Amino acid sequence: MNIQSKLDLDQRARSILKENDHATYTVPTKGLYPFQWNWDSALVALGICEFDLERAWLEIETLLSAQWDNGMVPHIIFWQNDAGYFPGHNEWGTSHTPPTSGITQPPVAATIIRHLLKRSPVDYHERARRAIKALDRWHNWFSRARDPEKRGLVAIIHPWESGRDNLPDWDEPLSYVDISGVGTYQRRDTQHVEADQRPKKIDYDRYMALVQFGRKHHWNDNEIAKNNPFWVADVGMNAILRRAEYDLAHMAHELGLSEIATSATRRANRLEQGFEALWSNKVGGYVSLDLRHNKQAPFITAGTFLAFFATDQTQPHTGQMLDMLKQWRNKVAYGVPSFDPNHPLFDSIRYWRGPIWAIINWMIADGLYRNGHLKEAQDIRQDTQKLITDKGFYEYFCPLSGRGGGGNAFSWTAAMWLAWASPSQQEQASPSQHNKT
Ligand code: GLC
Fold first, then answer.
1. pLDDT beneath 70: ranges in the chain
2. How many helices (H) and strands (E) does the chain have?
3. Can you tell me the distance from the alpha carbon of 282 to that of 344, in angstroms, rounded to the nearest whole number?
4. How many beta carbons lie within 10 A of that of residue 250, not counting itself?
5. Catalytic one of 61, 82, 91, 165
């Protein structure tokens, strides 16, 4: 790529983040996702800090300002009205100010704040301490509300909490959800994106039944832990939380919050022990586990490779996972597909059933890098760079043709470009490479 086009793409990425900027938070993309989303904001801050550190802090502080009293940080914050999105805050019925959804999303925020902190002068330390305390309350909530039996695995109560909303992993656990009382409703997503890329009606009915269950029980954690019809340990969520606990412990220790450092380390150790229950000998990878029915998902997803993101300690199954990654890469033109390209359910353009996400690629590459697999990390970065350069800043990409799908001018794709995939970051295989402890 010549210098000029490289600069143009950096410039374009910054413009996308500015166009999607609502002063205190960034929308994922206009139209399709018009509010603040939890892990989008955290990941977007990684890109914003490349040109405006102060604005990057604000992004995450706005997110944490919507934290519930019980510690949960919600997955959507409805800062303003927009009739173009469904389900809106009335459907969630959370009676929270500001209005929010009733579920959470993967807590990647601690990892990103650690990255910001490394670049921030000392006068940010007080703000960092406030953020660390909020993160500690959030992570504690995960442990209390979502792992009440202390197995070292946290459950999700809705596919949307995983952030990988439409994975085949959820098909069987969702099939137990009673949809007889769902009633009629008007979807909005298919007005923005072609229906063949979006979930099917039967899945949407189940999603809505779960929203209605939570609303009926006033989003009460105990009731949900006992009776929510969907209670699944997602491999991605558990890997990201493990990493977040290590990063939280590290920051708390550095900034003199020793009690938080101790409790985050204790939680991280418990999660590390629990994680092995996600290993499946049958498919040879880490998979999701339906905790209600005690059944492992029979599929490998990109979530398997997030095990590298979880820790920089030696992985028990490293060789096998690297072989699998190589074998996947040989099947497709670009890596890393969100779902096993060898499986009959692989669907190269339907969301989370095949397509590539730049954010997942970053997390996998970051993990590989920290674990010493530099070549594999660089390969994933090269693929991401090529996809964005050739196709644009799409929400996701087809692993076979590279075609972009979902929303365009997507904030987190722009952020991953600026922080990692752009040739301007040539020296860096990963933005958090110096975080290895
Ligand atoms: C989709 C994705 C989710 C993301 C949201 C906003 O719902 O599955 O991970 O947070 O879009 O980008």
1. 1-4, 6-7, 427-437
2. 17, 9
3. 17
4. 18
5. 165
Q: State the closest ligand 1 atom to the C-alpha of 352, by its place in the atom list counted from 1.
A: 8
pLDDT value at residue 187? 82
| pLDDT score of 198 | 78
The answer to whether 39 touches 163, Cβ cutoff 8 Å, is: yes
pLDDT in tens, 169-182: 999 999 999 999 99
Q: What is the DSSP string of 110-156?
A: HHHHHHHHHHS-GGGHHHHHHHHHHHHHHHHHHHHHH-TT--S-PPB
Mode of pairing for the β-strands spanning 232-233 and 289-290 = antiparallel
Q: Which pLDDT score is estimated for 3?
A: 64
| Ligand 1 geometric centre to CA of 394 (Å) | 13
Ligand 1 and 396: CB distance under 6 A: no
Indicate whether residue 37 lines ligand 1 (CB < 6 A). yes
pTM of the model: 0.96
Q: Is 344 exposed, middle or buried (0-12, 13-18, 19+ CB in 10 A)?
A: exposed
With 0-12 / 13-18 / 19 or more C-beta atoms within 10 angstroms meaning exposed / middle / buried, residue 37 is buried
The reported pLDDT for the residue numbered 429 is 52
The tokens describing 402, both together, are: 């590279």
Specify whether 245 is catalytic: no
Q: Are 296 and 287 in contact (CB under 8 A)?
A: yes
Residue 437: its pLDDT value, please? 43
Q: Is 286 in the pocket of ligand 1 (CB under 6 A)?
A: no
